[in-house]
Request: fold
Amino acid sequence: MEEFYLLPVGDRLIRYDRIAVNAVVAVRDGGISTCDTPFSRELGQFEQDYLSLTAQVRSSGQPHDLEEYMVIGTSALARYDIDGAVNIYASVYNNPFLIWGRYRKKLLRTELPVSFQFRHTQLDGIPAARFLEHLQAEIRGLKL
Reply:
């Protein structure tokens, strides 16, 4: 989405040329670090970069930050039942953020609740809903 290239900073919107996806990584000493993976429209390339970079962060314990990228935050807390994250923003966190927890098996389907937060100056409700619709379509198309 074009809006993901924009970052609200003070009273301005800064447009970036590139996007990255941030993940929290468990490191060897039991702590955590962060890893920015460059976005690629080619899912195979993104997966390859993600696996390589998160392995590097896991073994080194050092974050991998991409300063010249607009970073979309994510957090997967797969051991926990999470319905959403509310109001995580402070003056420091202006980036869009997607969080999810453990999936839930229902009678005839499996559900994965997600929480998507963004600054309203960056994105309106309808484009945000379209993003979530697109995400749902991509998930339905996965061959599991």
Observations:
- The first strand starts at residue 6 and ends at 9.
- The first helix runs from residue 43 to 60.
- The two ends are 26 Å apart (CA to CA).
